[in-house]
Amino acid sequence: MKIRKAFYIFLFLLVFSLLNSFSGAYPIYILDEAKNAEAAREMYENASYIVPYFNGELRSDKPVLHYYFMSLGYKLFGVNAYGARFFSAFFGALCLLFSFYTVRKVADERTAFWTLGLLLSSLFFVQEFHLAVPDPYLIFFVTASLWSIFLFDQTHQSKWLFAAYTLTGLGILSKGPIALVIPVGAMGIYLLWSKRFSWKTIKSFRPLAGIFWSVLIAFPWFYFVHKETAGAFTEGFFLDHNISRFSAEKEGHGGLFIITWLFALLGLFPGGLVLFKSFRFAKNESSKNDLLRFSVSCALIVIGIFSFSSTKLPNYTLPAVPFMAVIAALYLNTKEAFNSPKKWTAVFGFLLLISIALPIVGYLALAQEESLSELKTLAYYLGILPVVSLVALVLHLKKNTFKAVQMTAMGWVFMYLILFGHIYPQLTAFSPVEKAKSILHNKENIIVFSRMDAAFPVNYQRVYPVVKEYNELEQWIIEHPDGLILTNTRDREQLKFLEEHYLKIFEQKALFENHRTRIFELK
């Protein structure tokens, strides 16, 4: 027992070290991270843990749980990027460990290690746990809830059923009703597929009591935030950020039905390529293998739900990735997995082409980005991938496919360590937030006109007053003649007004976005 506990502790620390690698090496900059981390900062600084605010205004985008953990991160490590991101990696490690434990318990250790290796070598999936956003929390709670339901189905131990509904309740507090919809939908598909969809079977899962318990966990906070905001949070979150996102395209994030499936494959890339080889295996074995059937059910419900959503984003399908990894792992643990050299040649050949394209695309993208053109040689680091892919292809052609797969996985792990530890820090050093430090550091009187880059409040640890009318701005400048005007407005009329009346002392384009931060002062 002691040896097994020590093994899981070691495994957790190993996984956590990868998911947490270089989390404090670069500042918070992208929009979602900035808004979530700042809302948590304001909650922490004000010791007000019911209503979330961004720059002093109600933020109704997400529920509260991730703000609590980010606040704890700030308490432990200071108000910085590392503190904001720490528990994202922590819950990511728990997610992978729980998946490993379940697969090891239900299948075998080799399949469990395949699952772990596939997940740890998936760059996009690992990157999500480097972000101060609610998705890492949702991924863990949904994944752990689903595995708990499955373990109850396999063992009939009531502790797993209690765990499943408790985790679902916490999932609702992480990102809303989707944390309940996914497990219910997955179990529906699984039971129908297993030809066990009967009232007797459903009753054994105690759904009414369980769902009541899940809702009871989440309800108090939703009630208090509804009361304190006079219903504004409830309207904003449930109507705008749930129903509207599903029924209408938001912020330009739409696309065809198929794009959601491509996003899912991106989440498990490069390991997801194995799924194309495993179709026949899944078809033949699903009727005999509960773990395979359950994993397919979970992956299908997640991808299916977001395929029908009008708003489509790559992170939406990430809760499907652990289950996709299990499907691939079950296949890789069979004798026939490495007995089809032509298919493996196609896989490694395709991966080589993608790997060759990445540094070329990266170089061109950086060269065309005004603020980053001098850093275009950073794309050379992506040259690691074609080298790794070429070596893997050669190993495969020499009939050592197993080592080729291992080489590929290790190459992608090495690549994202370079990405997080070297490339991201250099890129973000050219963000408006970093470039403006020499001007804004220790400057007290700053006002935002119209709008600003969302990363300023969390990085400068302050709430900025915002005005939208010319007369309000003019009055503020009269009262603060030494003050600075911060804006990233794209409105031509507003820019013309600012340039005619004030002196522009700073301008920097946002990274890979179509807006510029400008700072003005009195002429």
Descriptive tags:
two-stranded antiparallel ribbon; D-Maltodextrin-Binding Protein, domain 2; five-stranded mixed sheet; 66% helix; 3 domains; 25 helices; 523 residues; mainly alpha
Summarize the structure.
With 523 residues, the chain is mainly alpha-helical.
Explain this structure.
By secondary structure, this protein is mainly α. It folds into 3 domains: 2-336, no CATH class; 340-430, no CATH class; 433-522, D-Maltodextrin-Binding Protein, domain 2 (3-Layer(aba) Sandwich), CATH 3.40.190. Helix content is 66%, strand content 6%. The chain is built from 25 helices and 7 strands. It has helices at residues 2-19, 31-46, 65-77, 81-106, 109-120, 123-128, 135-155, 158-175, 178-193, 199-204, 207-228, 232-247, 257-267, 274-277, 279-285, 290-308, 321-332, 341-368, 384-397, 401-428, 432-435, 437-440, 455-460, 470-479, 492-501; strands at 53-54, 57-58, 446-449, 466-467, 484-487, 502-509, 516-522. The protein has a 5-stranded mixed beta sheet with strand order 4-3-5-7-6. The chain has a two-stranded antiparallel sheet with strand order 1-2. The chain starts with a helix and ends with a strand. The model has no long low-confidence stretch (mean pLDDT 95).
Main pleated sheet: 5 strands, mixed
Mean pLDDT rating: 95
Strand order of the largest sheet: 4-3-5-7-6
Separation of the first and last Cα atoms: 73 Å
Structural class: mainly alpha
| Number of helical stretches of at least 4 residues | 25
Helix content: 55-70%
Q: Runs with pLDDT <50, length 5+?
A: none
Rg (CA only)? 25 Å
Name the shape in a single word: globular
In the residues, how many domains can be counted?
3
